[in-house]
Amino acid sequence: MTSPDATRAKIVTAAADLFTRRGVRAVGINELWRAAEVAKSTLYQHFRSKDELVAAVLRRRNDEWCARLRTLAAAASTPEDQLLAIFDLLGQEFAAPAYRGSDLVNVAAEYPDPDHPVRVAIRDHKREILRYLAELATAAEEADPEKVAAIVLALADGAACVRVSVGDQGAAALAREAASRLLAHR
Question: How far is CA 42 from CA 46, 51, 58, 132, in A?
């Protein structure tokens, strides 16, 4: 017998795969429970709605992404390189031919209501990244860590858009260079 946590993880994994490949709105509940190989009632025991499942997928992706960012930053040799590690992580992601853009941006486009729980989960993720970047900017002795964090995140998000819209796998390296130049002139 499978534990409830394992079943929940199995549902989230199946949903994440479908949402990434097809978009959230294009995937129906029946497809979700079939892909997860669980009964429909089991899906609803774990998630009261599809939106709750979407939020769980985003939270898990956030946790995984932030852990990867922290690992890369910790391995960097200088405080500035720690701050710029976000671009190294994006560079790894952009190298994948199947990269389809930021899950958060893609999902946000499908949920226009800023107060919707899914949009709240997305905003929470971005705020967590901003807080972490501000910590790194503080360690790099930046005079205005919050502003530096916002600039770095804007460049990172812009690089993701360039990667998808233009197909430029080097967008992360360009954004890293831009951020590095800006930091050098502050």
Answer: 7, 16, 20, 36
Q: Along the chain (186 residues), what's the average pLDDT of each consecutive run of 10 residues?
A: 87 94 91 94 94 93 94 96 97 92 87 92 94 97 96 96 94 97 84
Provide the residue count of the chain. Answer: 186
DSSP 149: H
Q: Which structure tokens are listed for 31?
A: 């497809």
Q: Measuring CA to CA, which residue among 80, 50, 91, 78 is closest to residue 152?
A: 80
Cα distance between residue 121 and residue 113, in whole Å? 12
Distance CA 82, CA 73 (A): 4
- Tokens 């946590």 locate to 5
Residue 70, token pair as written in the block: 């922290």
Token representation of residue 123: 């905003």
| Residue 151, token pair as written in the block | 């600039």
